Amino acid sequence: MPDQFYQDVYDLVKLIPKGRVCSYGVIARALGHPQWSRRVGYALNQCPPDVPAHRVLNRKGLLSGKHHFGEGIMQQLLESEGVKVVDDQAVDFEQLFWNPDIEI
DNA sequence: TGAGTGACTGTAA
DNA sequence: CTTACAGCCACTC
After folding, report:
1. Which residue from A25, A74, A79, A82 could staple onto A66, CB 3.0 to 4.6 Å apart?
2. Structure confidence by residue, pLDDT tens digits, A7-64
3. Which residue approaches C7 most closely, CA to C1'?
4. What band does A73 get if pLDDT is binned at 50, 70 and 90?
């Protein structure tokens, strides 16, 4: 049976604008489950090709999932979209942050 | 069934 | 401001 939460995660991540970033907890909260952040990570672990999971970071702006993308792939994707990454962290993370509750 | 692990977060110090 | 701890859910062995 399809997992609706996973689908909702994918749909929301697809809505993240190019060059913007978001966090697992915010996505979980936007879907009505503030404490399912770890589940969001598992959902993104399925990693469908049409889901820009590289725009999803942890709350510190750290590229938690870079290891799952491959060596340097996640950072390279972010850099190509204009998001500068230094020491596995997004520069101006707060400024680039995309809040689905407000900008949806 | 229970223990361990992980792409997390909020709060306390 | 950073670091440390506890809580949270799902999956695997």
Report:
1. A74
2. 999 999 999 999 999 999 999 999 999 999 999 999 999 989 999 999 999 999 999 9
3. A35
4. very high
Give SS3 for A72: coil
Alpha carbons A102 and A87: distance in angstroms, whole number: 29
Residue whose Cα is closest to the C1' of C10:
A39
- The separation, in Å, between residue A1 CA and nucleotide C2 C1' comes to 44
Strand pairing of A85-86 and A89-90? antiparallel
Scanning every strand, the nucleotide with its C1' closest to A45's CA turns out to be B7
Which residues put CB within 7 Å of chain C, the nucleic strand? A 3, 35-39, 42
Tokens 């900008």 found at: A103
